[in-house]
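Complex 445.
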Amino acid sequence: MKYLLILTALVALSASSRADEKDKKIVTGTNPVITGQFTADPTARVFEGKIYMYPSHDIPSVITHHDGSAWFSMPDYHVFSSEDLTTWTDHGVILRQEDVPWGKPDAYAMWAPDCVFKDGKYYFYFPDAPAEGKGFNIGVAVADKPYGPFVPEAAPIEGVFGIDPCVLTDDDGKSYIYWSGMGLSGCRLQDNMRELDGEPLRLDTPLPEGFKEGPFVFKRNGIYYLTYPWVRNNTETLAYAISDHPLGPFEYKGLIMRESPTGCWTNHHSLVEYNGEWYLFYHHNDYSPDFDKNRSARIDRVFFNEDGTIQEVAPTLRGVGPVKATSKVEIDRYSSIEGAAIDYVDQTDLFRGWKTIFSKAGDQICFNSLDFSDDAPDHVVFCVRAPKGGQLAVTAGETAVFDIPASPEWKEISFPMPHQVTGVQDLKVESLSGQHVEVDWISFD
Ligand code: FUB
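Predicted structure with beta-L-arabinofuranose bound:
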């Protein structure tokens, strides 16, 4: 009886924590986009007027690679949606490894997915390790809504062996699936979206050597773009090729993003047009500097030239979302930095994010496009730690100087704003003193 009661309590507890997780709001506007969990391989789609992001879900490693090293451990998928690229809704888990009828329930192999809409249904394509046999297959799960519930098909797509599915539906309604595994393959899909229509074609052979995985194909102004992680040296860049046919041949055109400056080996991406702007979704190991198989989704703007070529994207921390001055503005997600340093707030919980460290006069950081349009603030609040105090100059429109009192512990300190700030402003924070001052966030009340 005692055990039954404990079990009932545990089940109730886990159900309530799942309920908390579902529809949870995450507000950032900066990179990484989602905090509190890892989000790799982000595929972004526009459904029902919102951006939906279908990432895979890294967890701290529970399985080892054949060489004994810690390896990707990916048990399930969440889906996130946003209207403004700042506030994200986590719709919770949409598919678990133990729910895939043909999958190995403890393989932790739910790698990069995609989701597309056709004829009233949402088709979620995902790799998984089969219960019987080796390697990866690709399955389909179907839903009436972009956030599920998704029901997986009984068997994987026949004839597809590999990872990282991407599906393109052309203007004539025909759909194509692309995947990687011993090169890049592509094939038309039957109208049921669950079966190949013909024999797969090998599509990477005209490309420079180094295609690895993660193809993302889209069409813009009549051009078919094949974008993909490309290893020209040691780690993945993002590169692209174009064609006038969905199944190629594709001609290599150049880089979209260079290798990660901190050595994250993978970079998996998607491009999406939303409200007239194009965005690159990609990932980096921001919350896991020592283990690059725990990654986090990022977003930056992407621009096309007149002739359809893609401009190279420089990764930013500022990201693309509007950030309100009344929120806790994480200035460590800076647009530019000079002298100041960035570190984690809490080394035991990296999801708590970063802080800015000012250690000498002249150290400065800028956070662009801060939105003061709600109400002209009459106070500014600093969340700071300053063992000996210090002096910070804050520029938003005009410059104001604030004397930060000594505080060896984190403290929220409020000052009246000496001038009015309205509209969208670039924020600059500069140390005027040589003292060590750490700032977690700044907010304008
Ligand atoms: O996330 C696991 C794998 O790493 C993906 O499927 C690849 O594209 C790479 O990002």
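Residues 40-41, 56, 72, 111-112, 163-164, 213-214, 266, 268 surround beta-L-arabinofuranose (CB under 6 Å).
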